[in-house]
Amino acid sequence: MDILIVTGLSGAGKSQAGNILEDIGYYCIDNMPPTLIPIFAEMAFRLGQFERVAIVTDLRTGELFSGFFKCLEELRQMEVGYKILFLDASDEIIARRYKETRRSHPLTARTDSPIIDAIKEERKILKDVMEIADYQVDTTLLTSKQLREMIHVMFLGDVNDSIHLTCISFGFKHGIPYESDIIMDVRFLPNPFYIDEFKDLTGLDKSVFDYVFSFSEANEFFNRFSDMLGFLLPLYKNEGKSQLIISIGCTGGKHRSVAMVERIADTEKRLGFAVNEVHRDIDKMV
């Protein structure tokens, strides 16, 4: 029997992940206190009816969650195999999700703290749990479909049995995406913004795309960066990383970075990777 412990930040998508796992054959239990997990594992082992079990546990269990690491030690003593899936998202996205659903964060319900303060406190509490997790998924930029695809990749081996890539274009004038794993700067390329016929277009338009890649520097950068990804992705995968966020920046995030992300994303898709494209600043006023 394999046990997958699903935990992480409140509002990061744990319940949704549990539903997806159930769809692919896991027996799922939501909101189980850690102290009960070894008891359930012993009972399930005796029954012999479950091959794969997913248990969602988090701060909704209150003080009982403090027994998380004791739970893991008991499972090890019982020689029960387990893995940990940790779901995370940015503070701003989690706060927005709670506002949209009008639900209360577990810590605000107990302390009357503002939602952002509660999220920061929860992040401190879960820091040690996150560091030992076998799988970490940041749902900040993921749609429901993309989360489903990622879980299928991790636990069914679909989509080339590979890590999920998120490629972000952005403008440095609007700030760097803090969730990035890799950040590249393409402001060294000629800027289409200063050409009247391109100014109001974006890197998604063929004329702008062709202009960006009419320069040898753009093609040289693309080739070298693609080679670097070819070297890095297997290493990240071997280390158990399930998601890699690649951010490409130019000045405003509308032309050069968009074109480069489009080409990189298209290339990685052709290689069999699951890729999510995000053009963060494409609609912002320059």
Name a few traits of the molecule.
single chain; about 290 residues; alpha/beta; Rossmann fold; 2 domains; 5-stranded parallel β-sheet; about 45% helix
Question: What's the CATH H-level superfamily name of the largest domain?
Answer: P-loop containing nucleotide triphosphate hydrolases
Q: Which fold name fills CATH's third level, the topology of the largest domain? A: Rossmann fold
How large, in whole angstroms, is the Cα Rg?
A: 22 Å
Proportion in β-strands: 15-25%
Q: What is the correct CATH architecture of the largest domain? A: 3-Layer(aba) Sandwich
Order of helices and strands: EHEHEHEHHHEHEEHHHEHE
Give, in spatial order, the strands making up the sheet with the most strands. Answer: 2-3-1-4-5
CATH class bucket of the largest domain: Alpha Beta
Biggest sheet overview: 5 strands, parallel
Please state the overall shape, judged from the principal axes of the Cα atoms: elongated
Number of domains: 2
The proportion of residues forming helix, as a percent range, comes to 40-55%
What is the typical, i.e. mean, pLDDT? 90
**Number of DSSP helical runs:** 11
* Separation, N- and C-terminal Cα atoms: 55 Å
Low-confidence stretches: none
